[in-house]
Amino acid sequence: MKLKFCTLSVATVFFIGQNLSAQKKKSDTLAKEKQIDEVVIVAYGSQKKETLVGSNTEIKAKQFADRPITNIGQAIDGASPGVKISTGTGQPGSAPSIQIRGISSYAGSNDPLIILDGTPFTGSLSAINTNDIASFNILKDAASTSLYGSAAANGVILITTKSGRKGGRDILNFNMSTGYVGRSIPEYDRVNAYQYYPLIWEAIRNGQLAIGSTLANANAYASTNLIPGVLKQNAFDVPNNLLVVDGILNPNARLKYTDLDWQKPLIRTGFRQNYELNYSGGTNKTTYYSSVGYTNESGYLVKSDFERFTAKLKVDSQIRDWLKLGTSLNAVSSYGNNAIDGASSNSSYVNPYNWIRNIGPIYSPFAHDANTFATLYDANGNVIYDNSARGADAASGRNVIQENLLNSDVSKNFYIVSRAYAEFKIDPYLTLSTNVGYDVRNNRRSRYGNKIIGDAAPAGSAERTSIIEQTLTFNQLLNYKRKFGSHNFEFLLGHENYKYMYEYLYGYKTGQVVDNNSELINFITPTALTSQTDNYRKESFFSRLNYDYKSKYLLSGSVRWDASSRFAKDVRWHPFWSIGAGWRVKGEDFLKNSSTISELKLRGSYGQVGNDNTNTSDNAQNFYMYQNTFSLGYNNAQEAGILFNVKADPTITWESNNQSDLALDFGLFNNRITGTVEYYNRITKDMIFPVPQPVSAGIPGNAIYKNVGTMYNRGFEIGLNADVIKTPNFVWSLNANASTLKNEITQLSDGITEIINGSKKISVGHSVYDYWMKQWYGVDPADGSPLFLVADAYANTPASDIRTVNGVLVTTNHNKAKLDYSGSAIPKVFGSFGTSLNYKQWALSTMFTYQIGGKTYDSNYQTLMSSYSQGGALSTDILDRWTTPGQITDVPALNSATYLNSNATSSRWLVKSDFISLRQATLSYSFNPEEISRYGLTSLKLILSGENLWSKTARKGLEPGQSFNGTTTNRYTPARIISIGANLSF
């Protein structure tokens, strides 16, 4: 019989363990139009959406299926209010960092828990084929997350993979796409060679004036020392001492060579291709889904790529009326050339982003003939790189291009992700199910350092890292569901074991024997050989009770007892719980027949979840927080050596999050307009901090990790969706979300009043991302000196470096500058908005992400604004420097004598973090099924899609979204991907 579905209804989904299948709601007569209840995935099951009391955002596959993304983390960006993304790097295969409702921990992890088909997944999101994902759900409040207890403080992301379908015909789908990969963040504007030499000359001249030289002598000194004393190389065809005279570049000067661009040899146009084939179907008793996928992406930086093969098989079968079984198996193999990410090596000589950005515009990466200026090549026709002397800021003797081409860094990763379940129907109301998840990850990394130039020269080096991770999750769930008249009950009782095993092996050797062989056997001297094995265990008991009356009055309660091996036995067990309530006002008689209000629900929850996932600098300490640890391997010849490594607090225990949530869900005009307004308050207690200890205590690192602090995160979340126009041939929809976040430390104990960490100071009344910096005042119009507010300790101390400007007491010495709070990295508002247009077979969708408020410390720009660059690049903003008494500017005079003050770390380098970005856009055309049926096709769609297409920031070159704490690094910036593709179904 052909079923007729309501326009706004969707298939009911019944989910236990890993099973996801469609089920019809009973009706009085088959002639009636079927009413379909929308259900969503929740912790350890599913629930009717109208009875939810928790904060649960569902994103279905159709919302990201046509996008050229390698991992699901990219689809989370902008998908839900309250979720903030720190953009992933441009390295192919990289994943972004995710924060849900703020910062739950200072020293621990802030990453959400990932649940894949019912059990935890701790691997990289890049190991999951996005085309295999049916949906993902973002759980944000205690009512939604508390069943995951100690792992849920940072929120939970439930990923559900695709299954087969009962009955009907089998379906074969083939998806393919190919496209361009380029850089999405533009480079800072920098001065050229013609502008550069006079600027450095000016800094040298002003430095001589500052130490008492006459103008004539200072000018002569600058002209004489510009090349041999400072910059070392002259890119023009005039004598060194005649290149700049009295501040003017010689008008007869011509460049000897023009290959001064260090970016060109390293930056390229990348290429991405993706192919995926899946087959699904089923009988009335058994469903099946299988897929194979291949992704190959070369980044826009040379020697950066990612290649991935995936295979999946998933089968669910109703063996008997009382027994259902299911299993799924994912196999993943990936290979990648890793470019240096830059974040962990910000100023390293081999950081390509650092040196192509910061090397002066007067140096060529290639060697040239001293007389003809022609580029030099060796006997094999290979270009010869320049490693000659350069200025102090230009990596003399090094060549980042040559080193990156000669070195190698390769990752090979292998994943087996398996799930299985059994479901026993004991009676019509009681179901017992058991689920097993077993994952194995083998991550291997091979690195080679060449023997020609760089850190490993002249011997060469090779290193190998092997990490094997295994996770085993086994749970048993007893679910009782019953209806008494208008009263609906669901009771869940569960037990779960979780086991994580970590094996690490590392070897490093130097002394390369023969060329073109980076295997360890080809190296003579072993420098390091070490291994490590760690284990982590968790056991849990949990229960949940849901109740509703006519789907109108809603109650939910849950509790979970967790024990973690990270803590001592007497503090190992801890209960986590939640209670939630809701009132579905739409179900009341006075709204039941309203044509204006189609949905209205008030809901709230309160509860506690935890965090035992620590991020200490010592890996062993992550697993054994309560134990003192010691470092082996410090041997003296044959005499063994052991060093005290970490002093532990044996009473250390969980960080806990007490969460409250209040929300209003609404729908208007037959759900043409839907939305949610939500307020949350998360209080983190027993925060783990590295508590400073006196040096005399003899404690490594001079700190002990303790539970010492309390902090809150609170804010509003607004989500809105609207079908502006809805006709049979044309639909125009808008969507938007906005979130606020306020973070504040409310308590520090054990006599601690503050903890300074780089540019931040942790203290009561401030957030963990509040800047603590020297206070920049500006530039003295009289002489161009850099000015800072004076610290109180020097306010009444007469000195030549303290003066009054415009009635304000200031100093030209950054060491006497006042330290004070200087704003926060946390934005005032962040979110996304977008639109979708569907006209007949055409579809267009776009999404913008945005941020308003907050500050970024732009250290990249700081480097480019040196008042005395000795071979380093300069921003074009340096052209606004002070040159004339009375001049009003915010750029100090160039001066070799005072540049350390001008470039000191201070509030001068803070910039607004506001941005708006066209995050993605997709245009597609779906052929009419009647037109393509003659070719055996049931559907055919052509797609044009783009990621990271455009952005507007406070400064060209700035990337405000690269970190949550507002800092910047010379890193592999995100890629722009534009692809074309096709989806076919048979």
What labels describe this entry?
five-stranded mixed β-sheet, 22-stranded antiparallel beta barrel, transmembrane, single chain, membrane, TonB-dep_OMP_SusC/RagA, 986 residues, TonB-linked outer membrane protein, SusC/RagA family, mainly beta
Structure notes:
This protein is mainly β and 986 residues long. It has a domain of 161 residues. It contains eleven helices and 48 strands. A hairpin with a 3-residue loop joins β23 and β24. Keywords: Cell outer membrane, Membrane, TonB box, Transmembrane, Transmembrane beta strand, Transport. This is TonB-linked outer membrane protein, SusC/RagA family.
Question: How would the blueprint of this fold be written?
Answer:
Layout: E1 13-16, E2 19-22, E3 39-42, E4 45-48, E5 56-60, H1 72-76, E6 83-86, E7 97-100, E8 113-116, E9 119-120, E10 133-139, H2 142-145, E11 156-161, E12 171-183, H3 193-210, H4 215-231, E13 244-245, E14 248-249, E15 270-282, E16 286-298, E17 305-320, E18 323-337, H5 352-358, H6 400-406, E19 408-425, E20 430-449, E21 461-484, E22 487-512, E23 523-549, E24 553-564, E25 573-584, H7 589-592, E26 597-611, H8 619-623, E27 629-632, E28 642-646, E29 655-668, E30 673-692, E31 703-726, E32 730-739, E33 742-748, E34 755-757, E35 760-762, E36 770-774, E37 776-779, E38 786-789, E39 802-805, E40 808-811, E41 819-824, E42 829-839, E43 842-852, E44 855-857, H9 859-864, H10 899-902, E45 910-912, E46 915-926, H11 929-932, E47 939-953, E48 975-985
Parallel strand pairs: 8-11
Antiparallel strand pairs: 1-2, 3-4, 5-10, 6-7, 8-9, 10-11, 12-15, 12-48, 13-14, 15-16, 16-17, 17-18, 18-19, 19-20, 20-21, 21-22, 22-23, 23-24, 24-25, 25-26, 26-29, 27-28, 29-30, 30-31, 31-32, 31-33, 32-42, 34-35, 36-41, 37-38, 38-40, 39-40, 42-43, 43-46, 44-45, 46-47, 47-48
Helix pairs in contact: 3-4
